[in-house]
Batch of 4 targets.
Target 1
Amino acid sequence: MRRPSLTLGLVPFAVLAAACSSSPSSAPSTGSVHQLAASLDPSQVVDPTTGSTVAVPSSLSGAAGTFTGTVDSASRRLAWHLSFQGLGTPSVVIADVHYGATGSFGRLLVRLCGPCRSSRPSGTVSVPATGTSALVSGGAWVTVNTATYPNGAIRGQITSH
């Protein structure tokens, strides 16, 4: 009498195990990519101690900027582009993203550049898990600071679309 082959009995299990396993490098991203944008101007700057908007100084009357980017919720990577003008001298010191709703001040979410070496910087940075949801839900803003205006020369609320 012949015994059934044990090898044939294990084949379905091997196929099932291979189908269920996946390599992290070949697995598709399960998160979604969100498009982000903000228009920056001096009228949106908020004083960090009082929480009120700051009067626009005449030296910043022509200051403006734009922020665009994408954030991937799976990799928690923010790819960003910034442009600004009319900030005077000295040149830009830093650009940051902070947590916070429109008209409020909040803690730092991520530094974009510091010092920013051009008026059109760009890059990619990692964001904390809470940062991804803040960026997508409108709970974050971007600011450009100079030595003259260390709390912000221009600011804009980030929206997702």
Note: The beta strands are 33-40, 64-72, 77-85, 92-99, 108-113, 122-126, 140-146, 154-157, 159-160.
Target 2
Amino acid sequence: MSLLYGDGFASNTALTNSTYIFCSLFKKSPVVSAKNLILPATTLKNYCYRALFSWCTTLVAAPDLPATTLATGCYWYMFEQCAIMKAPVLDAATLVNECYGHMFEGCALLNTIECYATGGFSSSKCLEDWTKTVAATGMFVKSGSASSWNTGTSGIPTGWTVVNDVLLYAPEITFNGETIELECATQDAQIYYRLDQTGTFQLYDMPISILEDTVVETYSSYQGHVSTTVMQSCVYV
């Protein structure tokens, strides 16, 4: 991102409108670790990271991939033939055409993948051979609400242990001037809140009425997991 924005690049979360913007940038290079490489873009462009580390056979540590909105071919062949053992966490909920196709093909040491996709499985080539020739055994962590996964090189690797987890979202706050409403995108999650940063958090079960300016703090909880706490000032009208 510093190639696009110079100093302060880490605060930029948007790529330019160009396609193939970083395609094959490190391909076949002798890089060993990319764990400190910052790729802060949260919404991607078509083929932006295509084959970024393809055939970097000495690469053992991948960078974080924080994007939650994918684009056509964004990670196509990204880590082909690398030596990573653990994949970056893939938080995007909806797959798109070619997004993860061949992403980890030939990563013979890879034995851990966390992918929280819950939709878009019918997108063209979205998972085509993405785990071809990975380790024979490993752990695949997926969303408990995802039921469309296939088994094999274009899905969950055969022989791997599957763990159902949940992507826990922080609550969203809606305020209309005298009533605060809280909701969480994670199904069945419980929401806790407190007002004016005092007292203990309590379970949310109905809209909160206020009679004066109020600060609300809230977090969600599900199956032992706790989200980040969000805070908002609500001006009484």
Note: The domain at 172-234 is CATH 2.60.40.10 (Immunoglobulin-like).
Target 3
Amino acid sequence: MRNILGQSFCRIVAFSLAVFSAVPAGAEDFPSRDITLIVPWAAGGGSDAVARALQPGLEKALGKKVIILNVPGAGGVIGWRKLAQSPADGHTISIVTSSILVTKYLNPAQGVDFRDFELVTHVADSPLVMLTSPDGNFKTVLDIVKAAKDKPARINLATAGVGTMWHIGGLGFSIASGSKYTFVPFKGGNEAMPAIMGGHVEAGAGTLAESASFITTGKLKALAVFADKRNPIIPDVPTLKELGVDYVFNAWWGIMAPKGTPPAIVAKLNAAIQSAMATEGFRKYAEQNALTIVSEDGAQLAAIAAKEDAEVKNLLDLAAAKN
């Protein structure tokens, strides 16, 4: 994981200063009113927290109020459809996560495609972790795998909704470990985690960004990190690879705008978001919540999304073939 307070931060500051010193022509009058930032999940989850951590710096950079609008449902689709129906003038934007890659494959008629929007900024990354209750029976990930192999589809894994990072990360874990689970969808990570804490579901593959504070306070137990190396927030927790499961899943967060938003306005939004990411408040939030700040623009995020889109399709095809 990249050092949040190191070279990445310096690049963010340099980028922000450079962009704000040369605002593209046509963006001088933007914004002319308050900005609505859609969070397509319920309040209290990881994406909501990212939005609220960005909010103060974004308001300062743009000189307008930023209104957080939670529009939960259908694994983010309802919120993203609301964004798609908004005027392409930059005054309505949305949190986007890697879970957007899944929706069109799970439901071609109702899903959305990241290519139908303007990607503005790649904000941050965080690995998934396998979570369980501290009072549960599982001591390692291999205990979960064994239980699932002994009783296929009888072990429940919580997700933040169908098609979310929790769901796809858990599905990939299922295939990589050769074990089968029943996925139980909730309306967001803020609902999934209490269900795990209370033992209502056996486990769940949630983002470290959402669960870090619950892990460090002993409310949740982390059994493994879905990353290439251990995370400094939870250094005693092994990676899946250390335990013999060859699987990595890194969730990402970004910001996007409606398709057709003028490039000059997209550039100004990107610069404002980069400035918000460089604030002390956001850096502190990221450090405390195991987020790696990423100083990349929408084109760079689109390249990542395109690569992962093909990987997600292959994963879903494999899952379908096994059922």
Note: Residues 1-7, 17-25 have pLDDT under 50 and may be disordered.
Target 4
Amino acid sequence: MDDEKPSPFADLLAGSVWLAVAAGIIVAAWKMDRLERLSATIYTAPGLVPGMLGAAIGLMSLVLVGRSLHAGAITSARMPRVILLDHWRLVVSLSFGLLFAIVLIGRGLPFWLAAAIYTAAMVFVFQFPERRRGGQLVRGATIAVTYGVLSGLAIHYLFLDVFLVRLP
């Protein structure tokens, strides 16, 4: 296991990215339907928990940025060496997340089906190396599709019937 700490500059970059993500979450949470037509209180608004999580992420990112600046991130600024092949799961996750948001959502597919496709693809891709080594690709695909369909239906039920959130 590599115990090498990230450089202060890498922490500055990561903290800045997380701060931007937190700002996006807070803005999106603020724009969510507050269900006023249902006489809902502010404490039951669907955007409350995501907004609080976004604020927590923002606070932690500010701590990371402050700590990195205190450690000399500006004076020791040099881009960290990143080998994408070593981080293939991160690249796949980001790519699939963007594909889900840009391609699947709002293109006529029901949300539960888009979520099922996304989940099945993620499970299959992340289990692929182990399943291939074990000669279990068909079993892996079956499990991935099962997880996808079950999670898609669970997401549909929870958001529409329990949380009363309209899905695209």
Note: The chain has two domains: 1-81, 84-168.
